[in-house]
């Protein structure tokens, strides 16, 4: 009896650690399955001359990897300094991507313009956050000093 309960305890522990091991890839998959930050081109190519085209070559992709459209009104993008972009009404379809460019421009399907006159994403390292209208942080992505961009997933 004693031996049997020890054996079943060991078996239960084995099952538990197996489920813990399985939890990691499952939660990563769940994360990618949601609305999340995609590629971030934090370093606008060429010299940072603050021209509108250069500002717009700095951007963030947000990807909707769910099976439903999501209304982004009130969702926010925020950097380490506290600069914040708040979405107006924008319906992102299932499986779709919306690009938020730093400079000025005319909003269209798949692209939103922050409307800034200076860069937001630091080339020397920064952190992007995607925040729900409730204030809950949905995703974040950070990078260090270096040229180019980062694939957040
Ligand atoms: Ca930049």
How is this structure best described in words?
This protein is an alpha+beta fold and 153 residues long. It has two domains: 1-32; 34-151, Immunoglobulin-like, CATH 2.60.40. It is built from two helices and eleven strands. It has helices spanning 2-32, 52-56; strands spanning 35-41, 59-64, 70-71, 76-78, 84-86, 91-92, 97-101, 111-113, 126-131, 137-143, 150-151. It has a five-stranded mixed sheet with strand order 8-7-2-1-11, with no helix packed on it. Strand 4 and strand 5 form a beta hairpin. The radius of gyration is 21 Å and the shape is globular. The termini are far apart. Mean pLDDT is 86; it is low at 5-10 and 12-31. The structure holds calcium ion. It holds the Pfam family LTD.
CATH topology name of the largest domain: Immunoglobulin-like
Apparent shape? globular
User: How many individual β-strands?
Assistant: 11
What is the chain-wise order of helices and strands?
Answer: HEHEEEEEEEEEE
Q: What's the CATH C level of the largest domain?
A: Mainly Beta
Mean pLDDT comes to: 86
How much of the sequence is in beta strands? Answer: 25-35%
The helix/strand class is alpha+beta
- Stretches where pLDDT is under 50 for at least 5 consecutive residues are 5-10, 12-31
Q: Report the bound ligands by name, code or SMILES.
A: calcium ion
């Amino acid at each position: 009896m004693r031996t049997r309960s020890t054996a079943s305890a060991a078996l239960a522990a084995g099952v538990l650690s197996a489920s813990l091991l399985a939890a990691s890839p499952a939660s990563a998959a769940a994360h990618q399955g949601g609305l999340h930050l995609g590629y971030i081109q934090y370093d606008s190519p060429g010299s940072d001359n603050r021209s509108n085209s250069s500002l717009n070559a700095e951007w963030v992709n947000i990807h909707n990897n769910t099976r439903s459209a999501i209304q982004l009104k009130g969702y926010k993008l925020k950097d380490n300094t506290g600069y914040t972009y708040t979405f107006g009404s924008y319906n992102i379809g299932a499986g779709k991507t919306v690009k938020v460019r730093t400079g000025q421009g005319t909003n269209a399907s798949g692209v939103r313009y922050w409307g800034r006159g200076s860069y937001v994403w630091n080339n020397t390292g920064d952190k992007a956050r995607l925040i729900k209208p409730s204030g809950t942080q949905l995703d974040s992505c950070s990078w260090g000093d270096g040229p180019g961009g980062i694939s957040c997933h």
